[in-house]
UniProtKB/TrEMBL annotation, chain A:
One GO term describing the cellular component: plasma membrane
Alphabetized Gene3D superfamilies for the sequence: P-loop containing nucleotide triphosphate hydrolases
Protein name as it appears in the record: ABC transporter ATP-binding protein
ABC transporter domain segment(s): 8-241
TrEMBL record, chain B:
Organism: Devosia nanyangense
Domain of life, per lineage: Bacteria
Protein name stated in the entry: Branched-chain amino acid ABC transporter permease
Chief place of localization: membrane
Subcellular compartments: Cell membrane
Amino acid sequence: MDAQGPILVAAGLHKRFGALVVLDGVDLAIAAGEAIGIVGPNGAGKTTLLSVLSGAQQPNGGSISFKGGDVTALSAPVRCRLGLARTHQIPRPFSCMTVFENVYVAASQGGGFSRDESYSRVTDSLALCGMLDIANRPAEALGLLDRKRLELARALATGPSLLLLDEIGGGLTDAEASELVETIRELRRRGIGIVWIEHIVHVLLQVAERLICMNAGKIIADGEPASVMANREVVEAYLGGSAP
Amino acid sequence: MNAGLDFRVERWTLASRSAVAGVVAIALALIAGPFVLGPGAMDRLTILFVYVILAAMWNALAGYAGLVSVGQQVFLGLGAYFTIRLADWGLNPFVSMVAAAAIVGIIAVPLSFPMLRLKNGEFAIGMWVLAELAHLLVNLDQLVKGETGTSLISLNAFDAPLRRATIYWLALAAMVALLGALFVLLRSRVGAAIQAIRDNEEAAASVGVRVLTTKRMIFVFAAFGAAMAGALWLATALTFQPKAYFSVNWTAYMIFMVLVGGIGTFEGAILGAVLFFLIETWFGAAGVWYLIGLGATALLFALVLPKGIWGAIESRTGLRLLPVGYRLDIRSLLTKKNGTT
């Protein structure tokens, strides 16, 4: 970790849904500005981890600290205001509002910016995500790619220090996904930390400098991407059963 | 990277400025009502003002915040009840009306904690249950004399023309103040957050909207407005029979006005109230057939024009007279882009 210490530390996170254990003791430390990819088979607990980190769901055990303060008991909006933003795997637009208004809510509420500052944050986010020309379109009229972009623009407008991305590239073509990669690289240049869940590993590896593999609610590998991908346990988790 | 981006966020248009000026002019002209109108017309207009308040308040709650309630009569009834109660304790009846609405607004704060935990249908029906409960509790007060009811006797101390004019002005002032406050609220950052909650509560929370606090704000505001309407209704009717004030019919009327006018549009609720008022004026005497006609109209609108009259006008013409939204001016943006590249 760098001199000022990690921006986010999760210790011993547990999450159960009834009898089903979804997070089984997850420990994670993220440095400021770091770009982390998370992979793992379906049901490994990746999305639940993001939900617990962002405050959308409360863990049954463990603690989370962000920027040096304990945020375990804080709600999602409060964590967002502290600089911890997320996107949703299935986009959740504010359907009856325009693209601009969608992002304005994020800037004025999550970012807490003044009206004029919010306006320029919104246009900046929309420009970055390539949505300026459809700013006045109602969100319900958007296709999948634009809904994904809107998720990103909205999270971005809150002025995050750490951005949690949940399969932002899922369901997109290669060309669309690489456009998204360019946007995310720009965010990194601006010093925003990224935690990105993605199934399309070759897309993920264009951005991630550190890779985490989860399986059955646990982190089974964490480190430099090449070594994680070569890890025997990771191969087994992906192929199911034992490797030869 | 786009620091030099030239853009403008449009919140007013020529049409909307003219519309607001028109609304202000109408409100100012209405002040002269008691000097030019007969007693019958003045009473009818007072009733129209009450309808506009009720429609605007229900629209704020359901159309903008997504909180569909079939129990708003709880606040209407309590507004009337507390007016009677305070007046009986010797407070000036007109002061009692405003104070009663304030008391109901304060009561709405603790009520919001359990009620806003309920979602969708549970909230809608929960509010109705709350109204029935309040109805029973009000009946416990000896002053009310059960379902026989009582009257706002202290109003009789004022002579009829002065009383009528004061109630009219009070109703006009309440309507203008409540519509104005709602307009300002919806145009503020809170207004955008309220609509975000309506569209997707979880996503709103994830971009920093304090969901419960924001919902509470609009819940209390709508309660205060409905209570003011209840107090005004009492002043025009003079008699207080709990059954008549805590009746679910009130919410049915609010739903009618908002659905026909255009849910989730500021103009729609006002238009719906005016239409309802006209229908009542012309066909109210038809008794049962009037109610059947109302029901059929509401059904027809729900099927054919789900966004109501104003919603249909708005989506066809793009006309917005009292806009609460935001519009990024693309033309200036493109000009700048072309100019720099």
